């Protein structure tokens, strides 16, 4: 199980947060496609920009 580490005191909304997407071994499809769609959606709604790194 992963460990939850509290963010630094005073980091506020400017804190950098990293998330890891873990998929089952037999997963089919392109998870980066869903991330691109979510990023496009957030831009259209004038929400905070979603940045991601999706290696192939």
In words, what does this structure look like?
The chain is 25% helix and 0% strand. The protein is mostly helical and 56 residues long. The mean pLDDT is 76.
What structural category characterises the helix and strand content? mainly alpha
User: Radius of gyration, rounded?
Assistant: 14 Å
Query: What is the terminal-to-terminal distance?
Result: 26 Å
- Determine the number of helices (DSSP H or I, runs of at least 4 residues): 1
| Low-confidence residue ranges | none
Number of strands: 0
List keywords for this structure.
56 residues; mainly alpha
In short:
The protein has 56 residues and is mainly alpha-helical. Helices cover 25% and strands 0% of the residues. The two termini are 26 Å apart.
Structural topology:
Blueprint: H1 31-44
């Amino acid at each position: 199980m992963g460990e939850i580490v509290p963010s630094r005191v005073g980091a506020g909304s400017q804190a950098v947060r990293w998330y890891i997407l873990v998929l089952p071994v037999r997963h089919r499809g392109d998870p980066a496609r869903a991330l691109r769609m979510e990023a496009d959606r957030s831009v259209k709604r004038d929400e905070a920009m979603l940045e991601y790194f999706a290696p192939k």
